[in-house]
Amino acid sequence: MGTTTHPRDPPPLGELAAVIQRSLQANFASATASVVECPDLRQPPFHLASPGLSGSPCIADVGGQANLFPLPNLDARFSLRSLARDMQMTEQEGGFLIGAGAAPFHDTGYNAELAVNLYTPPGPHVGAGDQDVDKVRNGTRIIQMNPDGSSCCEPIESLNCGLMVNLYGSTGDSGPVLKITARARTGDQNFTNCIRLGLADHYGDSRPVSLGGAFLLKKGKAKFHIMPDFPKSDQLPFQDREQLEKEWLTYHVFEAPIVCLTVMHSADPEGLGLRMEHTHGFETDGNRKGGHYHYDMPETAAEVEYEAYLNVASTVYRIDRP
């Protein structure tokens, strides 16, 4: 795999909070953004694999949507532990990965969505390399379509993924983060785009900002898509991306609470082909809700509520660009 490294010059968190709050207040009846000490995200309602988002924060964009079109690229197979090393996350420091990607079809035997939530503690590890699961906390979920058309969200033991994944990485330490709240959407933008487009308007291409973390859909309903298994050979190739989105993806409306893991960029001045925003959600009190977040539903706009904890990356890695 080819890996390129792109340092960022992120603004201070306090400055980012002011920009984000202005953008959200133009799109929600009530919104705040501030700098706080990160709460323990291992606890409910987030259930993440590490307490915080601090320590060598970085983001990786791996593979991409082009690995689906016009034919699925079944050679696009990735190890999350190997990707952590590509992101210069060392065994001595340990590492925490969260993000949105495609399931390891080569392990499961089918295609699905993946919400990555994986922590490896610091120190040397002995065992079977990437499959040495004894030393990791793996809260990763797979979100799939069942043969009867129902959806399923459940833990997965594999430390792999396929096709594409967008990852926020850190050592998982506690530290200062952005706390963002928003309630009662009044505008057209979804929660994540409101944040990143506000940053894009303020900083432009001259100072790209890359953020990652988690948010909770606390109230309301939102639309998600779930990739089904790969189409049969007689349904391929996809004629165009519109066909893929309209005829293949499955769409679902799920009610809060849902935990969402997100990576976003305000700009891509180097032309890296970054996916500008990628968010996957999962439920912790059941086994059905989750998938790729689109937006909260108009019928619950007046009651929708979000709470997010995000941090800014100092480095972006582009890995195995199609």
From TrEMBL:
<protein>
    <recommendedName>
        <fullName>DUF1907 domain-containing protein</fullName>
    </recommendedName>
</protein>
<dbReference type="Pfam" id="PF08925">
    <property type="entry name" value="DUF1907"/>
</dbReference>
<dbReference type="GO" id="GO:0005634">
    <property type="term" value="C:nucleus"/>
</dbReference>
<feature type="domain" description="DUF1907">
    <location>
        <begin position="19"/>
        <end position="319"/>
    </location>
</feature>
<keyword id="KW-0378">Hydrolase</keyword>
<dbReference type="GO" id="GO:0016788">
    <property type="term" value="F:hydrolase activity, acting on ester bonds"/>
</dbReference>
<dbReference type="InterPro" id="IPR015021">
    <property type="entry name" value="C11orf54_DUF1907"/>
</dbReference>
<keyword id="KW-0862">Zinc</keyword>
<dbReference type="GO" id="GO:0008270">
    <property type="term" value="F:zinc ion binding"/>
</dbReference>
<comment type="subunit">
    <text>Monomer.</text>
</comment>
<keyword id="KW-0479">Metal-binding</keyword>
<keyword id="KW-0539">Nucleus</keyword>
